[in-house]
Amino acid sequence: MDNGQTTATKAGWLERTFHFKELKTNTKRETVAGLTTFVSMAYILFVNANILGEAGMDKGAVFTATALSAIIGCTLMAFLANYPIGIAPGLGDNAFFTYSVVLTMGIPWQTAMAGVVVASVIFTLLSLFKIREIVIDAIPHDLKLAMAAGIGIFIAFVGLKGGGIVVASKSSLVELGSLTVPTTWLTIFGFFVTALLMARRVPGSIFIGILATTLLGLVTGLIPMPDKIVSSIPSLAPTFGVGLANLGNINTPQMLAVIIVLLLVTFFDTAGTLVGLAQQAGLMKNDKMPRIGRALMADSFSMLAGSVMGTTPTAAYVESSAGIAVGGRTGFTSLVIAGMFGLSLFFSPLLSVVTTEVTAPALIIVGSLMAQSMRFINWEKFEIALPAFLTIIAMPLTSNISYGIAFGFLVYPITMIAAGRRKELNPVVIVLFFIFIAMLYVLNILPHN
């Protein structure tokens, strides 16, 4: 077979698989879209390693697990659903894992990872039997928006603390940090660089901001110079299979509550993002997203694989909007993203230079993007506004995503009934009301006598 025939065969395979003509796109445009999305979401390689590192996990292993779970998720998204959407471990889930489960509840990360494995298995089964789609449709739209916004504000708060911009205070809980600390200025610099790039709509703004802040830290000596840039892939041994090995430790009400919250948070995150991105790409049909079941399966399988390798649940990335904006319309975009994550595996030495102060601006900026969902909440109706507000504000104030979700689902049915709107309550919402009461009980938040 000559080169001409080979090229034609490849072109035919690409067309049959990704439907370029039908979606009015081509290989070049999809490749540019994939590169754009990857640059926009590559920060998760370093941010995820730093956040889970605070829980006591090996950063190198988490780096590898992050990349591999993204490769699996993006590849499945390409071939199962044919959508230009990137998948990787989500910021909200890793924040809940580290700051709520491990650091606040005192659960060892090994046991907490076993909870992620169980949640992943349940999650996959729920997707297979399409229960996930049914429950997502039943949850009030305003509470979905409030959850996204609350997680965003919580993530931003984590970034502000990590960068030293806000610190603990005995009198007022938190206060402005000292601006005489040199490393705090790294966060301030990175924040403004990223904000300016975002305002100019520069693709990969967050990644470029991290790069610029890291370079400033290296030049000024605030960050030690790494011994090398390229190396062999870090071993997965410190985290691989740890969750499976600790399944027997899931024997407390606390862990059951953690699993439920992991399911709930992950449940709503990807679905909302998928629909929003499909809307942007013009892929919605009759106000519904075609092949959403397949897209959810791609997310579920990558989450399951990631839990075994040693990382928190995956999610569809809002940063995929950058690739869609430059023309990405098919799964070939996702395939390019997967390829780039594969190459990134060889750059793990950069973990030592991407410090908490460097990644803090990314958390603050991403938090602000997630908080934008607040504008769609029906604030004019008090019965909706109050539970939405409590959901949002409780997450950063309690440093616990699960409590924020619980506040919303405990108040929403009560205010709706008081407003004479009992018939609008879905049975799923009532079930969740009692689930969260049980969760607070087993976490010793509610009295036992």
TrEMBL record:
It is found in: Cell membrane. GO terms for molecular function: purine nucleobase transmembrane transporter activity. One of its GO terms (cellular component) is plasma membrane. The chain crosses the membrane at residues 31-49, 61-87, 107-131, 143-167, 179-199, 206-225, 255-277, 298-318, 330-351, 358-377, 389-413, 425-446. Its main location: membrane. Signal peptide: none annotated. It holds the Pfam family Xan_ur_permease. The keyword Nuclease does not apply. Keywords: Cell membrane, Membrane, Transmembrane, Transmembrane helix, Transport. It is a multi-pass membrane protein. InterPro entries: Azg-like, Azg-like_bact_archaea, NCS2. Belongs to the nucleobase:cation symporter-2 (NCS2) (TC 2.A.40) family. Azg-like subfamily. This is NCS2 family permease. It comes from Ligilactobacillus murinus. The lineage of its organism: Bacteria, Bacillati, Bacillota, Bacilli, Lactobacillales.
